[in-house]
Amino acid sequence: MGAWTLRTHKILVADDSPIEAERIRDSLQALGSAEITLVDDGAAAIRASKSTRFDLVLCDYEMPSLNGLQVVRLLRSTWSRLELPILMLTVRDDVQTKVLSLRQGANDYVTKPVEPEELLARVQAQLDLKSAVEENIRARMQMLETRKLETIGRLAASIAHELNTPAQFSADNVVFLQKVFAGSSELLESTRDAIAKLPPGQAWADDFLAFWKQRHLDYLLLEAPKALDEALKGVMRMARTARDLKEFAGVTDKSWGLSDLNRALENTVAVSQSLWSSVAQVSFHLDPALPQLACDIVALKQAFFNILITAVEEAQKAGKAPRATLQIEIHSAKVANGLEVRIVARGPGVSKELPALLTRLRTSSEVSGSAANGLGIAHSIILHQHKGLFRCESGPDQSTTFIVELPEGQASPGGTVHYAH
Taking a C-beta distance cutoff of 8 angstroms, is the pair 156, 246 a contact? Predict the structure, then answer.
C-alpha cells in the first residue's frame, strides 16, 4: 500500500531586495518540498500571513512600510515561536541587533548576504523543530482521544449492562403475562359463551353479560394480546440495543487483536441508527469471505461512526433532501494489500466539499467545524493507529465515497502488530 505524500512546507520570504530574495529562493529550492512566497515589504508580509498559514517566515530587518521588528511583533501577537518560526535577515552583525531581534520574537537570525549552506541549515533546523513539536502534539492528542474513547467505552458498557438486566426480566415478565392472559381470555370467553346459551330470566346471567358489554371486554380481549406483543418487541429491541452498545464499546484493555470487520460495520450502523434513520437508508454489500483483521476494533468502529454521521449531517445541512432519501451503501472487500471499506452516500444534498476538506486535514491543522472534527478523528485512527489510507471522492451521480484501506497485520502474543509490506 502507498503512503500519503510528504507535506510541502510553506515559506514566506519578506525582503525589499529582489536580487537577495531570488538568491534566498534559489537556496531554499534544495529543500525539495518547499512552496516559497516572496513579498517586498513588511505590510505585504502581514497580509500574506493572514491569508496563508506559513511554516516559516524569513524577514528582512530593514524594509519599507513595516520594518522587520514590527513584522515580528505583529506576527507574535497571533502565533508563538513554536507555531510560526521566524528567521531575521540582517546585514548588521552587532550583538545589539541580534539580541533585539530575539527579544522581539525571532527564533534565529541570518546575516546578509546569506551563505546558502548556513541558510539551509538554519531553515532546516527550524522546520525540523516545528515538525517535532507538531508530532508531539499529535501524539498527545491521540493519547487524549484514546483515553476519551476508553472512558466513553466504559460508560457505554456500564449503561448497556444497566439496560440489559431490566430488559431481560421485563421480557420474561411480558412472556409470562402473555401466557396468563391467553389462559384467562380462553376461560372468560368460554364462560361468556356458556352463559349466553342459558334460558332467559336468570338475573345473575343478565348482570354478567351487561357487565361484559359495559366494560368492552370483547375489545379488551382482542387488543390486549396485540399490546403485549408490542411491549415484548419494544423490550427485545431495548435488549438488542443494549447488546449492540456493549459490543460497540468493546473491552478497552483487550481491543487490539484479530476482529471481524464486517461485524464491526454492522454494529456501528446499529448503534448509530437513531441518528440517521429519519433521513437515510443504509444497505450492506459485505464480502462474507473477508478475513479477520489485526486492529483496534473499538477505535475503528469510532472511525466508521464518525464517517457515517459526517456524511449524514452534511447532507442534512444542505436542506435539499426529503426525509429518508439519502442512500448509504457500505461495502467491504479483500484487496491486494489488505482490506477495503467503502461508504457511499448518494442523494440530494450530498456534500461535494468533503474530499477537499479531507485533503486540507492532511496538510493543515487550521481546519475546524463538526465535519472536520469527525473526519479528523477518523483520519487519525486510520492513518496513525493502523497505518492505513483514508480518502474521499465525489462522483457525478450526486455521490460521495469514503474509502478506507487497512493493511493486514499479524498480531503477536504481546499485542504488537507487524504489518505486511
Answer: yes
Q: What's the N-to-C CA distance of the chain in angstroms?
A: 7
- Cell numbers 527564533 correspond to 107
- Predicted confidence pLDDT, tens digits, the chain (421 residues): 333 335 678 999 999 888 889 889 888 888 877 889 999 999 999 999 988 889 999 999 988 889 999 999 999 988 888 889 999 998 887 888 888 888 889 999 888 888 888 898 999 899 888 888 877 776 676 666 666 666 666 666 666 666 777 877 888 888 888 889 888 998 999 999 999 888 887 889 888 989 999 989 999 999 999 998 998 888 887 777 777 776 676 654 455 788 899 999 998 898 888 888 888 899 999 999 999 999 888 889 889 998 998 888 877 776 655 555 788 999 999 998 899 999 998 887 676 777 777 766 655 555 555 667 778 888 888 988 888 999 888 877 778 899 999 998 644 434 444 444 3
- Cβ-based neighbours of 292, under 8 Å, separated by 6 or more: 258, 259, 260, 261
- Residue 231: CA count within 13 A, CB half-sphere: 17
